[in-house]
């Protein structure tokens, strides 16, 4: 998903090879400018509004916004006694956010004094994503987590022959798939609805959000009297960057047998839609 997650270059299952040995740090922190205006809203009030955003990449974690403390509404903050210690950054102190009767406890933290090896994060604060009601980059709402500038999502039309097999039964087959290549994730095969057997699809209430693709809805698959829950998803209204995915269906590589040009594909370990 990022530089520091999964098969990213500094992730725990790095998918590539460096030209240096493992003598370097096992835990990487990379702090950089993020030239976008970012706002966080809670209880109808803008708690954070910054044009001086930093992004912290850290091994095993998603990228995280950091803001100058002066870009946070001080009148909405309440000091707390809560502290935590990070061996890579130092001791953090926390503040809660109060708007009327609503409180986001210990939502914002910072490192007043960092350890010598930490990036220059003193004077900056971070905020738990789920503690706020909404996040915006410029004037567009963002979902799930801060977007990673090193994360790519490429959509390509293809003429490969794709067959999806569940419990030995072909449930989808297409020669006009759309392939999605997403950083650190396995290729995904999106198929036209006409190439998916409608008789095996079962409606589902499940939805999920992706910060790069939008909101997905799911279908289960019934084969041989058994139901495989939420095996296939679709983006009815994908983000503009991946508009080609609208109305196409994608099956979990991890839970199905997928043949591409007659070759059975290995089942990946990663499970993200």
Produce the secondary structure layout.
Blueprint (H helix, E strand, L loop, with lengths): L28 E5 L4 E5 L2 E6 L3 E5 L5 E5 L8 E10 L3 E10 L2 E9 L13 E4 L6 E4 L2 E3 L10 E5 L4 E5 L2 E6 L3 E5 L5 E4 L9 E10 L3 E10 L2 E9 L14 E3 L5 E4 L2 E2 L9
Antiparallel strand pairs: 1-4, 2-3, 2-10, 4-5, 5-9, 6-7, 7-8, 8-9, 10-11, 12-15, 13-14, 13-21, 15-16, 16-20, 17-18, 18-19, 19-20, 21-22
Tags for this entry?
273 residues, mainly beta, Metal Binding Protein, Guanine Nucleotide Exchange Factor, Chain A, 2 domains, seven-stranded antiparallel sheet, 47% strand, elongated
Compact summary:
The protein has strands spanning 29-33, 38-42, 45-50, 54-58, 64-68, 77-86, 90-99, 102-110, 124-127, 134-137, 140-142, 153-157, 162-166, 169-174, 178-182, 188-191, 201-210, 214-223, 226-234, 249-251, 257-260, 263-264. Helix content is 0%, strand content 47%.
Would you kindly provide a written description of the structure presented here, covering whatever features stand out?
This protein has 273 residues and is mainly β. Helices cover 0% and strands 47% of the residues. Strand 6 and strand 7 (90-99) form a beta hairpin. The mean pLDDT is 92.
Order of helices and strands: EEEEEEEEEEEEEEEEEEEEEE
Q: What would the principal axes of the Cα set say about the shape?
A: elongated
End-to-end separation in angstroms reads: 11 Å
Strand runs, count: 22
Low-confidence stretches: none
- Tally of individual helices: 0
In terms of structural class, how would the helical and strand content be classed?
mainly beta
Strand content: over 45%
CATH architecture identity of the largest domain? Beta Complex
CATH superfamily of the largest domain: Domain of unknown function (DUF427)
CATH class of the largest domain: Mainly Beta
Assembly state (oligomeric)? single chain
Going across the biggest sheet, name each strand in turn: 1-4-5-9-8-7-6
Mean pLDDT: 92
């Amino acid at each position: 998903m990022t530089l520091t997650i999964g098969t990213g270059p500094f992730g725990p299952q790095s998918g590539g090879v460096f030209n240096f040995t493992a003598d370097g740090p096992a835990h990487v922190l990379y702090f950089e400018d993020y030239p976008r205006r970012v706002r966080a809203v809670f209880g109808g009030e803008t708690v954070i509004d910054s044009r001086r955003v930093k992004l912290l990449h850290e091994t095993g974690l998603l990228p995280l916004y950091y803001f100058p403390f002066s870009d946070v509404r001080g009148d909405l903050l309440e000091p707390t006694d809560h502290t935590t210690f990070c061996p890579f950054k130092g001791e953090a102190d926390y503040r809660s956010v109060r708007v009327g009767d609503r409180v986001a406890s210990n939502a914002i933290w910072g490192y007043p004094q960092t350890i010598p090896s930490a990036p220059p994060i003193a004077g900056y604060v971070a905020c738990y994503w789920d503690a706020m009601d909404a996040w915006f980059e410029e004037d567009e709402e963002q979902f799930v987590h801060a977007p990673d500038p090193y994360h790519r999502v490429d959509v390509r039309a293809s003429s490969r022959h794709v067959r999806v097999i569940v419990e030995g039964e072909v449930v989808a087959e297409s020669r006009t798939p759309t392939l999605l290549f997403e950083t650190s994730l396995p290729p995904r095969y999106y198929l036209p609805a006409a190439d998916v057997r409608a008789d095996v699809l079962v409606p589902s209430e499940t939805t999920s959000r992706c910060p790069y693709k939008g909101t997905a809805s799911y279908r289960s698959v019934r084969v041989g009297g058994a139901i495989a829950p939420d095996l296939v998803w679709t983006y009815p209204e994908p983000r503009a960057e991946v508009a080609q995915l609208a109305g196409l269906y994608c099956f979990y590589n991890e839970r199905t047998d997928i043949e591409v040009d007659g070759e059975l594909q290995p089942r990946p370990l990663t499970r993200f839609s």
